[in-house]
Amino acid sequence: xxxxxxxxxxxxxxxxxxxxxxxxxxxxxxxxxxxxxxxxxxxxxxxxxxxxxxxxxxxxxxxxxxxxxxxxxxxxxxxxxxxxxxxxxxxxxxxxxxxxxxxxxxxxxxxxxxxxxxxxxxxxxxxxxxxxxxxxxxxxxxxxxxxxxxxxxxxxxxxxxxxxxxxxxxxxxxxxxxxxxxxxxxxxxxxxxxxxxxxxxxxxxxxxxxxxxxxxxxxxxxxxxxxxxxxxxxxxxxxxxxxxxxxxxxxxxxxxxxxxxxxxxxxxxxxxxxxxxxxxxxxxxxxxxxxxxxxxxxxxxxxxxxxxxxxxxxxxxxxxxxxxxxxxxxxxxxxxxxxxxxxxxxxxxxxxxxxxxxxxxxxxxxxxxxxxxxxxx
Length: 377
Description:
The chain is α/β, with parallel strands linked by helices. It has 2 domains: 10-99; 105-372, Dihydropteroate synthase-like (TIM Barrel). The protein has helices at residues 39-46, 68-76, 85-99, 140-153, 174-191, 203-211, 229-236, 254-272, 291-299, 319-324, 334-346, 357-372; strands spanning 10-14, 28-34, 53-56, 62-67, 105-107, 110-112, 119-125, 157-161, 196-199, 216-219, 240-243, 279-282, 312-313, 351-354. The radius of gyration is 21 Å and the shape is globular. The two termini are 35 Å apart.
């Protein structure tokens, strides 16, 4: 899908998925195009770009198979004035997103270059009721100590949150959230040279945190709950992590609905003036999903690559791990977390949000070498 261009044609990647570690012009792909109009024209035009196979499915979507390089070459040779060009352009954009790393992210005084290695976001919970057992409550000094440990372990940025999002959590006011977040954030921002994301879905909290030294916002509702959040982010000119979330766990098309809502987050960001290269997408592992659904999202994570944005995955210590490991308690989920982190990186994740940074740094470094060939031969 071309977020900046044609919005009527939606392109989805289908299994079997290509191996990202060896992805190249000769890699075979299967894709589905949901065309908003001019279906027959789109089908005729796409048939000329050199696919190995093309057909309509029972939902009147176009199924297309082929080699990435050949498809892109065919699209480049098309006349942009011909009917069906918009769908071909959307396909070309999607294939480009699949082949290329996400655009660099400006964060604080630095720039994160994706495709070279995985970035680690360390968790600082200033809550009394964190699911992971690391809630620090309203203790700025304890938060600073925790932040130092994370940075020493290799964290590239910190994620500071003052409201628990665990299942069954109690909502708190913006005033209470600020009373937890701001003292810790100010102290950490003053003492440590590390960019900080404020983990909040409230625009009032985000505004105050950014003024206090935060460099970005992590919104678990993806700019779709507080109508002022996108404007606050746009005015500050900072990155935002947009996570998928919903109330309940009912889906007709799990990945299709997640992708649709992430596209809506991108549309909200675009309409509000947030730069396209300042948005990170998170499929929301553990939010509005049953354990089995979370594993399905992880299996199909590569589908998010077609949106052309950095992908963040947060599985650390979560219940999907305990569920599969015979209801393992939180303090026994380290190796399960490591497995999901390695899988996510190999499936296209650019950032991982973790509690055990030092251990996951090792996992990321090894997986990056296997998936991205980070060292010289």
